[in-house]
Amino acid sequence: MTKLVYHPGRFDERAFTIEEGTTVIGRATECEISILDNGLSRRHSAIETIGGESFLLDLKSKNGSFVNNVRVERQALALGDVIRLGEVQFTLIAPRESAREKASAAPRPTLVMPLTSVPIIDLRSRRGDATERARSRLKILLEVGRALAASEDEGALLEQILDLVFESFDVDRAAILLPDAVTGRLEPWAARCREGLNGPSYSRKIVDYVYTRGVAALFASPAMDPRLDAAESIVPQAISTSMAAPLRAKERLLGVLYLDNLTGDHRVDEGDLELCAAVADHAAIALDNAALRRRIEEEAVARTQLAMEAKLASLGAMVAGIAHELRNPLNFINNFAELSGELAAEVAAGLTAERARLTPRAYADLTDVLGQIGEDSRKILDHGKRADAIIGTMLLHASGAARERAMTDTNALLAQSLRVTVESSRARDPGFEMAVDATYDEAIGLVEMVSADIHRVLVNLVDNACYAMREKRQKLGAGYAPKLTVRTESLGEWIEIRIQDNGTGVPREIEGRVFHPFFSTKPAGEGTGLGLSLSHDIVVDGHRGSIRLSTAPGEYTEVVIALPRRASGGPRSVKAAPVEGMIEEEESG
Length: 589
Known about the structure:
The protein is α+β, with helices and mostly antiparallel strands and 589 residues long. The protein has ten helices and 26 strands. The chain is elongated and about 125 Å long. Helix content is 40%, strand content 24%. Helix 3 (131-149) packs parallel to helix 6, helix 4 packs antiparallel against helix 6 and helix 8 packs across helix 9 (451-476). The strands form six sheets. A six-stranded antiparallel β-sheet has the order 2-1-11-10-7-8, with no helix packed on it.
């Protein structure tokens, strides 16, 4: 059997035993658990217990049934679950069979305060000997509210909360614990201790007590608690006093603010606990606002990306249709040009055989005409093939097929792209040799991307660099030493790829147009003008990154690619992460 505790930690706390079978909870007096609260329906919900397992069923209530702040219709229950029916809160606990077990099952706080808002007017209205202390606490609270309201980044906000805690309270250690997104277990996301101490620590039992009951609690002598006398962070470290308050925003529990002292020199009272709860309220609101800002940024990025993808898909469909319509007649042109060249060659060969039957002038005129036809056919075929290459690249631009993103080893991808392109360049020009200086930052790790698209970008950039260095070698001869420099660097939530060559560079007057479609620095017939444009679209539109070019004409060209580790969106504010190496007491019993 289990017990359901009504309003845990409050003056009207009551415990109900959950028997095998169905236990109905509601406002009606005939219910097994009857609570006279207007927020409850007459038959609000029921707990079914079968073979030791309990399930909460909502009986089509008006205000809903919630387990751990999640609305449910039917939900399996576990010990420690917080159940809210309308505005009435319960906690599911194990049964106590003796007074000693009942005393040892949970910490015994010196003072418990239900987590309600702590209005500033209440602090201001204190009189008597405590008036000056209340006034000081009011000033502290106003400063806390003002400081936290200006902070936006979640990681920096957690550290700022700890700064304010150590300014506001005479404590030795403090920690902010938030639930893990996967396990739901409270983990320290920010922690600090005064100089001279071995490191931050906290009591898991006290933290869980505050979090599950939703109350702020003060422990004047934690070592005397029967369930904490074997706790690593209590007795050996001689914790003298401890305070903890839930971080609650809009009736949602976000975590716990934990404070403690290691000596008995610090006197704390109800006012300190009220101030702790008030600071926790301000901190929770600030954290909730920071998370909201981050979600808004992510949603804005997602909406922009969806709108861009829709526009590109529409434009791509039109471009693809045009390209296909152009390719059909172009194929006929190329085929007939090639055939015309072959026929001209055959006629020229037949004309040579019949030369004796023609006058020298007629033979010369016919030979010139056939030669011109053959030359024109070759030019038509060359331009036709270039037009076909342009159409092929247009189809790549227009491709709207969604490619699967995956976590990719960027250093390995760059090394592969570099090797393939350099070998291809040497195969086209066996006499071309260049030095390659590649440095890879191992801290980059895995990055979310469409690896095939980024590979295409890297191959195109390295190929352009090789072309520029070959052109410069043809001008300067053996005195020129081609060099390609490749770098990767980890920049926190972003990575950077740099590709630099000491080739011809890009003239200043056309530097701003290199990423425009159909613009090429290569001579006619050697480039489509779509390589850099396609690379720009892949990096910027497809991966929410950036690509920029820096150059000095005649000296070098460097292309810098910046990619977010998560390409689905790169919000400015960075989400905090749990603290590594935090000491947590081990509970016994």
